[in-house]
Amino acid sequence: MSKPLKQIHLAAHFPGVNNTTVWSDPAAGSHIEFSSFAKFARTAERAKFDFLFLAEGLRLREQGGKIYDLDVVGRPDTFTILAALAAVTEHLGLTGTINSTFNEPYEVARQFASLDHLSDGRAAWNVVTSWDAFTGENFRRGGFLPQDERYSRAKEFLATTQELFDSWHGDEVVADRASGTFLSDAKAGAFVHQGQHFDIQGQFNVPRSPQGRPVIFQAGDSDEGREFAASSADAIFSRYSTLGEGQAFYTDVKSRLAKYGRRSDQLLILPAATFVLGDTDAEAEDLAKEVRRQQVSGATAIKHLEFVWNRDLSSYDPDGPLPDVDPDVGENHISKGRAQVRMYRDPLATAREWRERAEANGWSIRDLVIETGNRQAFIGSPSTVAKTINDFVQADASDGFILVPHITPTGLDPFADKVVPLLQEQGVFRTEYEGPTLRDHLGLAHPDDVREERAAS
């Protein structure tokens, strides 16, 4: 008997100004005006996507003490945007990244419970940690947490918010409007939490929301991050864009679930994916090359190289060869807040490898950054892209994708108009929403049902 086809999950990420967006293109709209977010959300909902995703921008990026062209406008507050989008959409899930290092459980739980009520059960939380002392200055924390302590705090942070969400128990508390009193002796929202990171007690003032708790996403790729997702998350983002890497990540994370009493279908694997469409595969390839050169300006290429070299390279020609000088591996880093955690753990080895590749291929600095940086995950005609996406999902390299267009807010339209119908024709993507909540879209059970299932087993 053949294996039944998996249903594909699709979501849309509205990116800030970064090396994915081509914000300088005449077709690009505002990254701060609400009309851009509303247009983007309506397109995602028209295409029957599971959810819209917003990342969190707590501080403008800088290098060498200056804000640079990858972050020229910042990003509005996540909760404000999602609450506003709840009013202009009916089905689309609303997912936001909120930091567990620089916030407090009571406030975050209250915000997400409120969003879940306002949206009739469409809220989701991407739980992240932060090692960035530069960002931490905004919160008067004067430093950062080591990696093991960041995840320890995140686990307790999430557990504490879940205690708050669960502190209202269905219909136990009934209000008598005539007398203005409660008819039940139940203490609505009462909580007490004592732990390593939080020692709080009181009463949570937002009633149980439609989903019970927001859907929980997690984005860490470290061993600690994968374990955190396996124990606590409903979905995990993946950064792997090749079939083999995707399958390895999928297998690893799913294999961790059993120790927490969870089934494979209780955690979704959703990589982020950029795309470029053309009438033919060749046309799409040509367009993708043009997009990459728009994404990586000469100034951007130099800034990217400076992050690895840890030196001021502003005197170098981005269309010239790589520097002969080696990276500075000293304690102080050119980008504040990143001195202790480097994206490239061995800058000297990275520099040697990049010089060899640049010399072998005749690449300039800009060429190298284009070739080694983020690549479009899906390039081709609509039929090619639809087939590739389906192949990934059916081969257990993912459960779906979070699509990141390079133009906002209109960049999602070609995918919605040309690729989604092909997936629907193949029977691997919905033609209508199955239920009102984000948990319905993702095929996830209500927390109360999961609790009852575990109690019965």
Automatic annotation (TrEMBL):
Q: Which Pfam families match?
A: Bac_luciferase
Keywords, A to Z, come to: Flavoprotein, FMN, Monooxygenase, Oxidoreductase
Name all Luciferase-like domain ranges.
Answer: 25-395
Give the InterPro entries listed for this entry: Diverse_substr_monoxygenases (IPR051260), Luciferase-like_dom (IPR011251), Luciferase-like_sf (IPR036661), NTA_MOA (IPR016215)
Q: What is its EC number?
A: 1.14.-.-
Gene3D superfamilies reported for this sequence: Luciferase-like domain (3.20.20.30)
Q: Name one GO molecular function term.
A: monooxygenase activity
Report the family membership: Belongs to the NtaA/SnaA/DszA monooxygenase family.
Q: What is this protein called?
A: NtaA/DmoA family FMN-dependent monooxygenase
The source organism is: Streptomyces prunicolor
